[in-house]
Amino acid sequence: MGTTQLESVQEPKYWHLKTVLNDALDSEFEVGEILPNERDLAARFGVARATLRQALEQLELEGRLQRRRGVGTTVAPPRIGVAVGPSAGQWPGAGPDAWRTVGCVEAAAPAPLAALLGTGPEETVHTIRRERTVQGQQVATELLYVPQSSVPGLSPMLTPAAHAPAVLRALHALRLEGEDRSVELGSARAEDARQLDRLPGAPVLVVTTRYVAEGRVAAASVATYRADTCRLTFGDSGAMEVTHHASDEDRQAS
Hints:
The strands form three sheets. The protein has a six-stranded antiparallel beta sheet. A three-stranded mixed beta sheet has the order 10-3-11, with no helix packed on it. A two-stranded antiparallel ribbon has the order 1-2. It contains seven helices and eleven strands. It folds into two domains: 13-75, Winged helix-like DNA-binding domain superfamily/Winged helix DNA-binding domain (Arc Repressor Mutant, subunit A), CATH 1.10.10; 80-245, Chorismate lyase-like (Chorismate lyase, 3-Layer(aba) Sandwich). It has helices spanning 13-28, 38-45, 49-61, 111-117, 160-172, 190-196, 248-253, and strands spanning 65-68, 72-75, 80-83, 99-107, 125-134, 137-147, 178-187, 203-213, 216-226, 230-233, 242-244.
């Protein structure tokens, strides 16, 4: 059999460097340790800084490195396993919920969400911001979009503190008929990056969920998870448990 076109393609230089750097992270650095600056690293490995940046970006994408505000590039801890299973027919915020509500505003939904919800460009949508924290570290932020038509009858005199609870109570009164999720890799927007203590453009995992009631999409959420620390898991139990990769000490103890 002849050589295929893909087999003849040479491995990019940054990809080889990524492998070398990955081995160095395992043998020379500890979790949380700050890497030398780009100039020193490029000189050590004999590569251009542009090649080095590509390799570092790939390692960040794979969860080996973290770029931290005011600190630099550090060795990342093992990823946290975050279960994102079916919610057993429950609305967001109903029953045990791993999310904490931090605010709510009224505004027209962004165009992609308006299309998902089937709302008009001027229709008011309640946007609830929630966050998820694991062991004191914020790992995700979420925007839950609820069209005004899904929760009619809310008092226009709601205080900021009462706004989100009132929207959720009205949403929970509807019978949830179904939900679906999609996951894609994305880059952190400025606001999400600030919430997650990342730099804008950092890799994130975006989970979009549609909630169906009365034969239509009654609400939708966009949850942004830190791709450098989270490993999303899906199952049928609907559990929202968080698991961790076993450390070498844990393995030895067992």
